[in-house]
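Holo prediction — pyridoxal-5'-phosphate.
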Amino acid sequence: MKTHNQISHISLESRKRIHFFTSPTPVEKPAGLQKLVPSIDLLIKRDDVMELAMGGNKVRKLEFIMADAQSSGCDAIITTGDLHSNHTRLTAAAARKLGMNVILAMKGKKPEPVGGNLLLDFLFGADVRFFDVDRKELPSIMEEIRREREKQGERCYVIPRGGASAYGVLGYANAAFELRNQLGDAAEKIEFIVFATSTGATQAGLILGTKLAGLRAKVVGISVGRTGDEIAKDVTRLVGEAADLLGVSPKISSDDVIVNESYTCGGYGVVTKEVTDLMKSVAQKEGLLVDPVYTGKGMLGLLGLEKEGYFPTGSRVLFIHTGGLPIIFSHWRVEQ
Ligand SMILES: Cc1ncc(COP(=O)(O)O)c(C=O)c1O
């Protein structure tokens, strides 16, 4: 007889997926960083190490999203993001790899000069458009773009901000199975999984995936800007949508949705000295790069929680490095 998690894995395996990176991504024991968190046993999963256009968590989501776009017969992708968006960079790369057109509705005015992820959006030849509007207006702007392009004969697929759709969630549900297969029994010893959270899609995938794969780790998202309540609401909705898509109904309660909002450093995209000092410390102790908008704050949360005594002494904690490195080249000033 098949167990529940075998059924779930089969249901995930049978989903259409386009492979954009070699899995599993590495799991490392970071000797230098370990000295900064002496009370825990730290591991890092390097989702910043992937072949597609400098990698990151968005690649996992795009494996399932782009497979859905392709099987729907689409030849153009429309999506949105902030000016430094990793999601737009990686969507542009994935679309080009599959021979599709890509239109990006960026929130904000075109900066001068163009750097970081935005520079790469242009390098991929995306049709980059700027809208200095409230974020809430972008879904209807994307629908207008869809109508315009479909009149010209293209079939368009719209991806929400950050790849936060049910298909996107499958990326990190799958990552939990990847982790279990990669580490075997050691995966069951992981007590906490910590990472930067924003739209909540990565977190939703990890919550769903750990349940389905039978891992006991608590999934702890460190908010990079939004309130804990806002993110938790989206995580809960996304878990439900992805579970429906898979046809599974794991037992997930509000206690499983843990969002820490104490490390936003004044808001989304705000880069404080605390963050840049942390980036320097991680670079100099471990030879590891983290970015100032996402992984820097995620790491700040990890270090802060260890200091607060949130993790029982000796806990095995896995930090997921979700990428974002091109942001270093648009948000960093030498004097920082
Ligand atoms: C580098 C990086 N880390 C973490 C996140 C947060 O992921 P999510 O939007 O799935 O919560 C994002 C995107 O928002 C990101 O680009």
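READOUT: The mean pLDDT is 96.
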